[in-house]
Design goal:
Elements lengths: L1 H9 L13 H12 L55 H7 L6 H12 L6 E2 L7 E2 L4 E2 L13 H4 L12 H15 L7
Antiparallel strand pairs: 1-2, 2-3
Amino acid sequence: MRAGVIACLLVASCGPSLPPPPMADVTRDVVVGVLDIDPAPLPSGNLPVVDDRPTPTTTTTTTTTLPHRPRHPIPPAPDPDPVFTRCPQWEPLAREVGWPESELERLDHVLFRESRCDPTQWNPDDPMGGSHGLTQVNGFWCRPTEYWPDGWLQAQEQVDQCVDLYDPEINLSAALAVWHNSGWSPWGL
């Protein structure tokens, strides 16, 4: 069987008849040398044809789609669990005026409980002139007393008068000063 296949390779009658390539004898010697067989004499005019054209093949390609990668890194998503969950609009300002990170969650609770996040709130029922603004700072802190003739917040250079506490930045800063002085006790915590 092997000899038949090899003979078919060497004899032109097994496939289409093509004109012999240049240097057919050299090609025949090379083919015979590679096959390591004793070449049989070929009839004249029927030289072996070596076809070195590529054989058509079928290729199957598997494509794997990788996730899209942008050229530039995507910025991190916003924190899905912000510290301020009830009054998130005031968190950046609270940080800006200096509230410690460790107190931001409790401050958010105070803002919501005291004013429902509304800087214009005033509670006239609280003693000493009521409570003012976002954190409902009591009038006690900005009214003149025996110990603080101009008011404690005025002495701390936080406000000029109690009405200043309706400005959210001043209110958060004044509440921070009160917190540094007395902790959370002025808010009943």
